[in-house]
Amino acid sequence: MLKLKNVEECFYPETLEEAIAILREKGDKAKVVGGGLHLTVFPNPQVQYFIFLDNLGLNYVREENGTVSIGATVTINNAAKSDLIKGFFNGNLSSALSLIASELLRNQITFGGSVAQREPYSDITTILLALDTEVVYFDGSEHTEKIDEFFETDFRAKLKEAIIKEVRFKKFDSSYKFGMERHVRNATDIALLNMAMLAQIEENKIKDIIVSYGSRPMPAIRFKALEDFLKGKDLNEAVKEVYSFAKENADVKGDIRRDEQYRRELTGVFAKRLLESFGR
Amino acid sequence: MKVHYKINGKDYEFDIHPGKVLLDILRENGFTEVKGNCYMGTCGACTVLINGTPKTSCTVLAAQVNGAEITTVKGLGDILNPHPLQKAFVEKGAVQCGYCTPGTILAAYALLKENSNPTDEDIKKAIDGNLCRCTGYVQQVEAIKYAITLLKEGK
């Protein structure tokens, strides 16, 4: 089944500079390929050139000076099974990653591809938003932006002449808790709502918190109203109050899969469950 | 364009359209044990090992894996010398129509290479991308556990 029938040539650059030069030369007819899943499942017959990222050395998960960096071509399973990621949040981050899609697709979906596509149902972008991640991209020189700010720009236009190099986040200490909830119809399906939470809890008070939710059905964003509501609260009080606030203030819509009320209810339930898990 | 793969231990060169997925290249060149079905990465029937990692060959661009080592189910064993997984799947009734079997066996093989003592949950997670309409998965999990026993006994 030949879906990409107009492809003429493939490139395997060995440096980011080389990759950018090819991307600039070929323009809209070129497609940067990380895992390649999006390209093969949603093929664009206009594509004439592939720029494969496999030889750029972006397949690393490492920690340096208190910052964790995940290269753009790292797959979900590469990250989930790495000792570094398994060591965070009592394994909760690794567990959250391990529930996304199926084992076979977790071997193909990349962090760079997930950020670049920003699919509405993406669990990766919800997780990265909660981790206050930075996106590092290269267009001849290196740029670093907070992921939520990156998504507020015309990032797709930026990526016409740039390549995502890595994502990075702080190495959080044990005062931070992380959790994720997903509503799915079966184990390997896309989420119909997802939520991730990162909270710094000290003496049972929420010192700092980031909440992100996606597949609303719109793409993932931070739930800043909920963050402001919860910051500084006693955790037990917050657990009592969060369901109503989250449900009433959720920015969600209905679609053919789930109506707005269902997603609104889920938002409240997920927020409560996640806070409850932080108290255990 | 020309691509080179090592498939089941042997070197091959194919002249391909660069827009094709690996599944089509394999089947067009006689590796029909790799089954085509959904072409979306959702059913797992087309699973192969690419440099030891199980992936759905219907979503992998053939040009992207130029130079890779590819293993199909025939690379594990044959009818005269079956791999313990192949033996176990037959003996435990985990093969009914057989269409999902090559992919599921390869996913299980990859699991056992990484973890020789998986729990039931590890097994289910490893084959969660290989859909089966026939067995209900119970026999498949039993077969994989039986294969572990056979492997430990050196059979």
Description:
- The complex is a heterodimer of chains A (280) and B (155).
- Chain A is an alpha+beta fold.
- Chain A is 36% helix and 24% strand.
- Chain A has 13 helices and twelve strands.
- Chain A has helices at 16-26, 37-41, 76-80, 83-86, 92-98, 103-106, 111-117, 123-130, 147-152, 155-158, 224-230, 235-249, 260-278, and strands at residues 9-11, 30-33, 49-52, 61-64, 67-71, 134-138, 142-146, 163-170, 176-183, 193-202, 205-214, 221-222.
- The N and C termini of chain A lie far apart (51 Å).
- Chain B is α+β, with helices and mostly antiparallel strands and 155 residues long.
- Chain B folds into two domains: 2-75, Beta-grasp domain (Ubiquitin-like (UB roll), Roll), CATH 3.10.20; 76-152, [2Fe-2S]-binding domain (DNA polymerase, domain 1), CATH 1.10.150.
- Chain B has a five-stranded mixed β-sheet, covered by helices on one side.
- In chain B, helix 2 (84-91) packs across helix 5 (138-152).
- The A-B interface holds A 1-10, 12, 33, 36-37, 39-41, 47, 50, 52, 54, 98, 101-105, 107-108, 187-188 and B 1, 17-21, 24, 36, 39-42, 44, 47, 53-56, 58-61, 63-64, 66, 107, 125-130.
Write the layout of secondary structure elements.
The complex is a heterodimer of chains A (280) and B (155).
Chain A: E1 9-11, H1 16-26, E2 30-33, H2 37-41, E3 49-52, E4 61-64, E5 67-71, H3 76-80, H4 83-86, H5 92-98, H6 103-106, H7 111-117, H8 123-130, E6 134-138, E7 142-146, H9 147-152, H10 155-158, E8 163-170, E9 176-183, E10 193-202, E11 205-214, E12 221-222, H11 224-230, H12 235-249, H13 260-278
Parallel strand pairs in A: 1-3, 2-3
Antiparallel strand pairs in A: 4-5, 5-8, 6-7, 6-8, 9-10, 10-11, 11-12
Chain B: E1 2-7, E2 10-15, H1 22-28, E3 47-50, E4 53-56, E5 69-71, H2 84-91, H3 101-114, H4 120-126, H5 138-152
Parallel strand pairs in B: 1-5
Antiparallel strand pairs in B: 1-2, 3-4, 3-5
Helix pairs in contact in B: 2-5
